[in-house]
């Protein structure tokens, strides 16, 4: 029997898990959603929901993974053999496949922008909006970016857990934090930056609507990479000397920290140059290049921002390809390289329609959405809530409670007293919250 891979250290596991969680959600989506939803008040709600909803779910996936010692699909088969619950892992694999197919397209955009910024071609172009259109509407550029981004993922996953994911995360995550701190310091030294800081950190609850609360719920819940059993697969490589509650807490706090850094890097700059904070998804690709163009050494700072964004996007996508690869290798490391290449190639091919959604396939609509938009809606608003709900119900009502307690208490030390609170949240607060978010998003289907 082949030896199952394991993380080499606790810090390697935490950095890799944090890398899986910190991606488009924390650096791209969080700032523009916060800008649209009241700034400081939204931040407080996001932190509250992350600790009360996202963190318990993260602990749950860690328990299922280490408790079974199996990847996503096999984990549920082992813990609940010959039962309906095995569909939970299958939803996770399908969801990760579809998510990576269009996530890689955005990763390709970031890769293209990073390369252009390195050679000074982003700011020199002048019209950031036109440049974004040039990148996204050019079939060859988008497919090339998509292909290279997937190739980077394949190379890392094929190298294995220790030599691939963990090694890449150990370099990328510290670099991400260093670059972020440099950018925050630069942003805070601008004239007028204080207005951006005040907007982001000073709560104005008059701007909070029911929709903003649900956005905060969704953002906090889905920004920790839970719901598709990615963390089940990651924690299956975890040894018994590591505390699950403490590790999950570290990942959640790092995610909050990066979200705060993203806000402090972006909002002071946006306010200093008179842009609107509620610019929407174009904040990263359209607004920030325009802002950095007005700064001394702006191209350098833009390149640093795009590079850290690329790192975050990659470390997050590693977990998506890993769950797909692990589901088919089933612990047989001799087949990892081959399956990594095959899986990555199939994801690339499946993502081509999404890559062409802004050019040659822009007129092809599914439920009034482009292929990219329809796939995003299916993954984010149908499969992810469904997978999350199944995981919550499984850990709270189906999984052997003696095994759950054993995994929670292992090396937990001071964290062991939180077990009852965690279980209460998983039995009631988390499932109810998921249903509320799910019902709301479905109600928005035709809007």
From TrEMBL:
Query: Does the keyword Protease belong to this entry?
Result: no
Spell out where the chain crosses the membrane.
12-30, 42-64, 84-106, 140-161, 173-194, 214-238, 250-275, 300-327, 339-358, 378-397, 418-442
Compartmental location: Membrane
Q: Which UniProt keywords apply?
A: Membrane, Symport, Transmembrane, Transmembrane helix, Transport
Q: Does the keyword DNA-binding apply?
A: no
Q: According to its UniProt record, where is this protein mainly located?
A: membrane
According to the UniProt entry, the coiled-coil residues are none
Membrane topology per the record?
A: Multi-pass membrane protein
**InterPro entries named among the record's database cross-references:** Na/ntran_symport, SNS_sf, YocR/YhdH-like
User: Single GO cellular component annotation?
Assistant: membrane
Recall the GO molecular function terms of this protein's record.
symporter activity
- Pfam families assigned: SNF
Q: Belongs to which family? A: Belongs to the sodium:neurotransmitter symporter (SNF) (TC 2.A.22) family.
In terms of PANTHER family, this protein maps to: TRANSPORTER
Put simply, this protein is called Transporter
- Source organism of the structure: Domibacillus mangrovi
